[in-house]
Amino acid sequence: MIINKPWGSEQLIETNEKYTVKLLTMLAGQKCSLQYHEVKHETFYVISGVIKFTFGNDVSSLSSKLLYPGDSFVIPTKLIHRMEGVEDSTYLEASTSELNDVVRLEDS
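The structure assignment produced for this chain is given below.
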């Protein structure tokens, strides 16, 4: 099932009691919420395009890096983060299965 989002789309590939895998599309110039998770642990893997990944432990001291095809990034619990499409991009998200564990700090 594909779920359209303001920034692109999300396709749930698998979810069970141990893990969840999603295929995400991030459109150029769009970004998701600045957020963190209380329990959920995630890993992203870029398939195509370029994503600006912003992250940090405090909103006042965030860092950014560009992620290219083949790059990955691990997001431990409570790390503040946001993805933004520099180009139309596709990436995989593998995570623990707490799908509703999202604390949004800022939305576009």
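Interim note for the steering committee: Residues 54 and 64 are 4 Å apart (CA to CA). The chain has a mean pLDDT of 96.
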